[in-house]
Amino acid sequence: MSTVDEEIVEERDGNKDQKKKKGKENLKQRAYLNSLTSIIDFAGKQITGFIVSPIIVSGLGGNFYGIWQMLMQMTGFADMADTRATQVLKWTIANRRDVASAQELQREATTALVVTGFILPVVLIVGAIISWYAPHITKVDEQYYTMIRLTTSMMIFSMVIYKIFDLYECILRGMNLGYKRMGVRAAIIVLAGILKVAVIYMGYGIVGLAAVQVVIALVTGITFYIIVKKAVWWYGFARTNWPKIKSYGKLSGWFMALNGAGMIMNASDKILLGYLAGPLLVSNYTLTIFAAAAVESAVGSVINGIIPGIGGLYGKQEYEKVMKARRLIFSLIWLLIVSLGSAVLVLNQSFLALWTGEEFYAGDISNLLIVLIGVQGMFFETDGSIINVTLKLQQKVYFTLASSLVTLGIALLLIPPYGVAGLCMSILLGRMILSIGYPIILRRNMKDTSPFFQSRLFQQMIGAALLFGAAIYFNDYISAGNWFTLFLYGGIVTLVAGAVYWVVGLQSAERKEIMDLFLKIKFFKKDD
C-alpha cells in the first residue's frame, strides 16, 4: 500500500457533518450559482482571448500561430492514455453524494488518486513520442525541430500537472459546489493572458507560451486544492483496497475509451487541416470560429451549471425529473444559441475585419457550417453529460468511436479540395451519429417511452432555420466599420432574434417553464 492508501483522515464532528450532508439542496439556486460562475469564467476567457489573440498572431505570424494551434491539439492526444479516474470520481460523487457517508466519499477520492498515479508514467511516455514526432506532423523546417520538441514537452508537462490537480475540481463539481470558485478561474485566465503578452513582447515565441502554461497549471491546481479544503465538508482521504481500485480502473477504462474516441472527433480538426492543407488555413479556421466558439461557450456555461444537480436526481432514481430538466435545458439552448448564432452569421466577417484582418475570414459557407456545428454540439454534449452521470458508458463509447471514424474518413476526402469548408462538412456529417445515438441511449437509461420526434422539436428546428436564413440574407447588407457599431448591431440582432424565436420557436408550455425557472431564482443570493 502507498502512503496515500494508508492515510486515514479523522472524522469531523458527526452531527455537524450529517446536518450539512442531509440539508435540503436547492437545485435551481445552485444551478444558477454554478452557471453564473461559468459565465464569469467564460467572460474572462473571451475578453482575455479577444485582447491577447491578435497580439499572439502578430507576434508569431500566421504560419507559426497555426503551428501553435496544432501543437495544443497534439499534446492533448497524450491525454488519451489517461484512465480518466477523476471523471469517474466526479460522476460517482454527483450520483452518490446524497446517500454516501463521509468515509465512503473519502475512499472514492483516494481510489481516484491512486489510479491516476498508476497511469501518469504512461501519459509521459506517450507525450515523449508526440514531442519527438511533432516537427514532422507540423511540417516545419529542420532548423525549428528542437524548438518544436521543447515546446511540446513543456505543454505535456503542464497537462500532467493539470491531471494531478484535476482531482480537486472534480470533487467540487461532483458536490455541485462549482460556484465556490466564483471569479477565481477568471482571474487566473487574465493572469495567463498578461504573461502570454509579456513573453511575446520579450521574443520568446511559442516556447514562452508553453512556459506560461506550466506556471498557470500550478497556480490553478494549488488554488483548487485550497478551495476544496475549505468548501467540502467531508474532504480527506480514507484507506482504499485493491478490489475498489480494480473497479475504478474498469470504469475508468470506459472513460478513457470515450476520451480517446472523442479526441479523434473533437481535438483533431486543426491537426488534420494543418497536415492536409497547411498551417495558414489553421489560422483562418481558428480565428473564424472564435465568435461561434464564444457563443457555444456562453450557452455551455449556463448549461454546465445545471448538469451536476441532475446527478442527484438520477442517484435517487427520479427519472421523470431528469427528463423534465433535460427538456428545459434544450429549450434554453434553442433560445440562446439561435439568438447569438444569428448575430455571428450577420457580423462575423465585420468582427474579423476589425479584430485581426479580413484576410483571416474563412468565408460565408464555412461561417454557416461553423455555427451549425455549434448548434449540433450543444445538444449531443448535453445528452452526453447526462449519460456520464449514469456511469453506463459502453454504448456511448461505441457511438462516439463510430462518429469519430466517419468524421475522419470524410475529412480525408473533403479537406484537400475544399479546405475549411470541407473540414466543417465532415464534422457536421460525422456527428449526426451522436445527434441520433445519444438520445437513444439516454431514453433507454431513463426508461422514457415518449415519442422520439415530437411537435415541439419540429417547431424549434423550423424557427431556427427561419432566423438563420434571415441572418444569412442580411449578412450582405449589414456591416460594421467600427467596434461601437459592431456591438450595437450585435446587440440589436441578438435581441430581435431572441424575441422572434421566443414566439415562433417555443411552445407556450416551454415559455412558461423558462419563466418559472427564472422567477424561482434568487439572483442576488450567494448561497443556496
UniProtKB/TrEMBL annotation:
**Annotated transmembrane regions:** 47-68, 112-134, 146-165, 186-204, 210-228, 328-348, 368-390, 397-414, 420-441, 453-474, 486-504
Does the keyword section mention Membrane? yes
Example GO CC term: the record gives: plasma membrane
**Which keywords does UniProt give here?**
Cell membrane, Membrane, Transmembrane, Transmembrane helix
Matching InterPro entries, A to Z? Poly_Biosynth_Transport (IPR050833)
Q: Where is this region: Disordered?
A: 1-23
**Keyword Transmembrane (UniProt):** yes
Give the superkingdom in one word. Answer: Bacteria
Residue stretches of biased makeup (Acidic residues): 1-10
Q: Where in the cell is it found?
A: Cell membrane
- Entry membrane topology: Multi-pass membrane protein
- Please give the PANTHER family that the UniProt record associates with this protein: PSMA PROTEIN, PST FAMILY PREDICTED COLANIC ACID TRANSPORTER
Name of the featured protein: Lipopolysaccharide biosynthesis protein
